Amino acid sequence: MAGMVAGTRMTGTTITDSDLLGLIWLASPALPVGGFSYSEGLEAAVDRGWVSNEETAARWLVEQLHLALSRSDLAVMAQAIAAWRASDEARIAQLNAWVLQTRESAELQQQTQQMGRSMVEWLKSVQPEQAARVREHPTYPVACALAVSATQAPVRQALLALAFGWAENMMQAAIKSIPLGQSAGQRILARLAREIPAAVDHALALGDDERQAFSPMLAILSAQHETQYSRLFRS
């Protein structure tokens, strides 16, 4: 343990204690960006009976991780971190526009814009020099990348942390909307944690022509959720 004080060894890459803590902070559900208020279509799936217990919830979220988050937001985050670090404003604008163009429902548009604004507001409090770099309202993946870019954390470790933060929020959405107990939620989170490294590696391997946000049933559920009779979540 004494040899780990200056840095933490993770998958062959050294990350400093301050950068590791910074990633934990960004991934925390306590970060005031509003992630807890969205289910990203999960509540609609519960309403229709497609997700009804621990097993179907875990399977749904694992598929969403690989088919939606990995191929879209995580890939954008990886590319946007590099763009922010290089001060490439044209590239940042391009990535931000792509995210907006691929949000297929009003709720999903609202989520990425609201969480992006909230991330910038948080940065104004803790990293004002980073917030001052913003030239247009960033979507959530681009705003997350801005926060990460202030650290020296390797991109892969940053994506692992942010994906786990997403998993925590989605697990909480599952146990509230189905509902499930805390133990079931922790088993779902453990299953997602096992899947996250592969999802991150896939995201890192994607180029501009390979990113995609093609998840039509998720978009349909999100649109239907807008008029759902009873709702706990904003998406």
Q: What value does the average pLDDT take?
A: 91
Estimated share of beta-strand residues = under 5%
CATH topology tier name? Urease accessory protein UreF
Assigned CATH superfamily: Urease accessory protein UreF
Annotation, overall tally of beta strands: 2
Instruction: State the strand order across the main sheet.
Output: 1-2
Can you tell me the overall shape? globular
H/E series, N to C?
A: EEHHHHHHHHHH
Task: Give the uncertain stretches in residue-range form.
Answer: 1-12
Secondary structure tally, helices:
10
What percent of the residues sit in helical stretches (DSSP H or I)? 55-70%
Query: Number of folding domains?
Result: 1
Biggest sheet details: 2 strands, antiparallel
Description:
- By secondary structure, this protein is mainly alpha-helical.
- It has a single domain, classed as Urease accessory protein UreF (Orthogonal Bundle), CATH 1.10.4190.10.
- The chain contains ten helices and two strands, in the order ββαααααααααα.
- It has a two-stranded antiparallel ribbon with strand order 1-2.
- The longest helix is centred in the first third of the chain and has 32 residues.
- The radius of gyration is 17 Å and the shape is globular.
- The N terminus is likely disordered.
Summarize the helices and strands and which ones pair or pack.
Elements: E1 7-10, E2 13-16, H1 17-27, H2 42-47, H3 54-85, H4 89-101, H5 106-126, H6 128-131, H7 140-149, H8 155-177, H9 182-205, H10 216-225
Antiparallel strand pairs: 1-2
